[in-house]
Amino acid sequence: xxxxxxxxxxxxxxxxxxxxxxxxxxxxxxxxxxxxxxxxxxxxxxxxxxxxxxxxxxxxxxxxxxxxxxxxxxxxxxxxxxxxxxxxxxxxxxxxxxxxxxxxxxxxxxxxxxxxxxxxxxxxxxxxxxxxxxxxxxxxxxxxxxxxxxxxxxxxxxxxxxxxxxxxxxxxxxxxxxxxxxxxxxxxxxxxxxxxxxxxxxxxxxxxxxxxxxxxxxxxxxxxxxxxxxxxxxxxxxxxxxxxxxxxxxxxxxxxxxxxxxxxxxxxxxxxxxxxxxxxxxxxxxxxxxxxxxxxxxxxxxx
Length: 303
Ligand code: GLN
Hints:
alpha+beta; Beta-lactamase; 5-stranded antiparallel β-sheet; 13 helices; 11% strand; binds glutamine
């Protein structure tokens, strides 16, 4: 298949949607991003890389980081993770507090903020440096040693992070946070502030297309664990729009409020698309459309 031609066709088709939606502004540093950006990259499991538009421009990965912290924690902790976080879609916005009280401080899944905070807490306990371990993993898998945090975004999010602070303290009251809440929040905000391009992230999610095997050949996850992460991405990766995303795109995917979305085609490739304009659920308008077009044009999906 001529992947470059497909990406070019997708980019042309979504052009009218670029700039639609709203750039996230509850983290003020993200509101400064140009809404006219669009990029898309595809990295095959055997190392080929294709891209279109702004595919080499770094953006704020935000919640896409949650896939990698989950994988890094699962690799160290195995099934014990699932005692502290569920694997069911929440049907609620990513930063919602309401379900947590009914469900005794156990978040529905690792991809809403509450669940991601629990995972960061666990990774911090297991490694002593959750954000550092994450940055190192992304540098190695992407092949980009310059991949780094954005301190302005991290500081902006910390200043305006009242909801995340509320979630973390609330879970701590149920005994579901092991470290001091301030440390967990700090690592979480820095993890979300990582800047990476579509090229970086398409490569970095390759281990999920290779059933748990890293770019260098060593194994991060068992085949079964890679299946678990992909399955949770499919059912929970785009929050309360996960059903619509599965219906339209048919791939495991994970979005972030920076406007990025990664998606995985097992045995074949990692994909990443970026455009900052978000829909009401916090997913990139042009990004979801691009992935929808991609799978429709190519017939490549998990179904
Ligand atoms: N850092 C963001 C937050 O915690 C991540 C949310 C997202 O990308 N959906 O609110």
